[in-house]
Amino acid sequence: NPHLEKMKEDILYHFALGTGTHDFPALFGDVKFVCVGGSPSRMKAFIAYIAEELGLGSPGSDYPNICAGTDRYAMYKVGPVLSVSHGMGIPSISIMLHELIKLLYHAKCSDITIIRIGTSGGIGLEPGSVVITRQSVDATFKPQFEQVILGKTVIRSTNLDEQLAKELMQCSKEINQFNTVIGNTMCTLDFYEGQGRLDGAICLYNEEEKLQYLKEAYDSGVRNIEMESSVFAAMCNLSGVKGK
């Protein structure tokens, strides 16, 4: 964003961080991997797990929330790994990503990989399976993210890094603990009607129509459904960051 260069100070409001109050290169300059997920507690548990795996922490160690000045998001760091919560749905993760990408820019980070981890609804898979997203598709199975900007509809690509998908699949084979597939992820605007559930407050379709829709999704290559992947893919593409 060329406008950032004209700003005396960039305040990352929803992180409670700012270039005038924090030394971004000192705090985040060594970051190479960012993992994002919905809930703060999950991302804190994740950073504790990563610290143990990398040999950078001791059992029972506490990891302070870098964004403790706000209750919007939570952020934890150990070594080159940053773990950030993003809330639920496209609007919430979009706000977080704007500020995360600016944080990485101000910290002068390079060669960054961002991975979104979280639960999702599987289609045609055993419970507990892991889906590595090839591309995110909308609820009509198109690989695109649509957003209205200044009154105009803008459509952005949602393809994700193919080489990273292959590397993650190879890691899965080496670990050999989870059934893992590469497939498309459908991103919806809603947890209930948008995903064909029958137990929401409103439902104007029947089970047969639901199953037909899910079959069409499966036949198009969709293997799981969630609510954040489209804007995640679009923003990673636009900012030149490897994402998965």
Describe the structure.
This protein has 244 residues and is α/β, with parallel strands linked by helices. It folds into two domains: 118 residues, Nucleoside phosphorylase domain (Rossmann fold); 108 residues, Rossmann fold (3-Layer(aba) Sandwich), CATH 3.40.50.1580. It contains six helices and 13 strands. It has a five-stranded mixed sheet. It has a four-stranded mixed sheet with strand order 7-12-11-8. Strand 11, helix 5 and strand 12 form a beta-alpha-beta unit. Helix 3 runs parallel beside helix 6. Its EC number is 2.4.2.3. It comes from Cathartes aura. InterPro entries: Nucleoside_phosphorylase_CS, Nucleoside_phosphorylase_d, Nucleoside_phosphorylase_sf, Uridine_phosphorylase_euk. GO terms for molecular function: uridine phosphorylase activity.
